[in-house]
Amino acid sequence: MYSEKVMDHFTNPRNxxxxxxxxxxxxxxxxxxxxIMKLWIKVEDGRIxxxxxxxxxxxxxxxxxxxITELVKGKTIEEAMQISNTAxxxxxxxxxxxxxxxxxxxxxxxxxAIDDYLAKQKGAEENxx
Amino acid sequence: xxxxxxxxxxxxxxxxxxxxxxxxxxxxxHGNPSSIYGEGREARKALDRARDRIATILGASPREIIFxxxxxxxxxxxxxxxxxxxxxxxxxxxxxxxxHHAVYNTCRYLEKHGFRITVLPVDSYxxxxxxxxxxxxxxxxxxxxxxxxxxxxxxxxxxAEISKILxxxxxxxHTDAVxxxxxxxxxxxxxxxxxxxxxxxxxxxxxxxGALYVRRGVRLDPLIHGGAQEHNRRAGTENVAGIVxxxxxxxxxxxxxxxxxxxxxxxxxRLISGIMERIPHTRLNGHPEERLxxxxxxxxxxxxxxxxxxxxxxxxxxxxxxxxxxxxxxEPSHVLLALGLPHEIAHGSLRMTLGRGTSAADIDTVLxxxxxxxxxxxxxSPLYDADAFCKTH
Lengths: 129, 393
What we know:
The structure holds two protein chains of two kinds.
Chain A: H1 4-11, E1 24-30, E2 35-44, E3 47-56, H2 59-72, H3 77-81, H4 85-91, H5 97-102, H6 106-128
Antiparallel strand pairs in A: 1-2, 2-3
Chain B: E1 4-5, H1 16-26, H2 38-58, E2 65-68, H3 71-85, E3 92-96, H4 101-111, E4 116-120, H5 130-136, E5 141-145, H6 159-169, E6 172-176, H7 188-191, E7 195-199, E8 210-214, H8 229-232, H9 240-278, E9 282-284, E10 295-300, H10 305-314, E11 317-318, H11 324-327, H12 334-338, H13 343-346, E12 349-353, H14 360-379, H15 386-392
Parallel strand pairs in B: 1-11, 3-4, 3-5, 5-6, 6-7
Antiparallel strand pairs in B: 2-8, 7-8, 9-10, 10-12
Helix pairs in contact in B: 1-9, 2-9, 3-4, 5-6, 9-14, 10-14
């Protein structure tokens, strides 16, 4: 049912955990549906230098979370904002059709983490200005 | 790696003795039971003998057994057949919130055809209250369908108690006994039911064959029209090999039943208490005693069932879950929700169903690997804060 790549990321998920002094945090999904992703990012000079996640969910949910942390590292905020849920699924050699909707939320979680980062930046600028 | 199969409620392996009994009818004995020449007569004899054996074990008479393609067809024939045959008498049907989809969706279908369905709730153990059945009866009630034991949580219903109430009111009573026949004693007289469904592959028989017990005098509209087979109630040339296999499997199950009940209960309770001792934030689903001998169903908080099953599978263990991802829908199991479990907890369910091949060593292996898997998934879960729990628990 799952591709080898999905099973690899599910079995050995990359970057599991939290970043205590993260620059942005995003949460997507809800427990009622059975999938929640929480993503932490660390940003330096406009680039994402670290990303970590914690996920409650099925194999696809865990694999997409793991994959997006790999995809975003080293990317600028602008580049990271271009990553779509479909791109994450493609990087995993595809997901079963039923999983495309409910368990493919990693890019949305990333977007929320970036929004959180940008809001904090804006707040800091206003305080300084 | 040795595989440990703990999904016997889903299906069971065919017993070698059953295959042996079936083989002649898949090879040289190819006759059609409806033919009058020698080959046909041989097939008819085998069919009659199978019907006698099954009827005897169930406490029925042979004419009360209708062979079907399995449990789902038996449920459909019982419910639709009775509803359409009795539609001049009334249009109300009562069922429970934890029925198998073969019953639940059949009732939903009838709703579209003018029948009124009452779905009775269950308590937190999954038990239907016989008093609630009595209270739901109306002058329009023509049929009640309540399963003997639940396929997910293993809770055994008070069928004999409910049938006493219905007998007084002369209302037809169907029970889906797919999970109990061949596993615990099932006698249609003691249960007092009018219709009872069973399926061969749940008790080490072949897939694609089952039966419906229909008490003498009960009217049923057929689902499948055609020839005069099964006393005009189910057309189509009989699945002779399958039916012979089903009878053989049922006889073998009856012979070892007492011993197996005791053995599986002991393994079941060992597995349940082992899980409860080793894994915190775990709850048992279903009734602690009124429960199928081979059924274990638990919920692990903060994790999701499919990722649990994938991890178990990698360790060689086959089990099932009521999470949305494994049910093929967006909702977790309707049975777990009917118990009053919140969605997020129902997603973390694990069902392990033991069988005649399950050993004490298998249970020990599960108890060795399961805590590590649950802990690993919890460490990954944003819902789980181990430190906070250590402080508060």
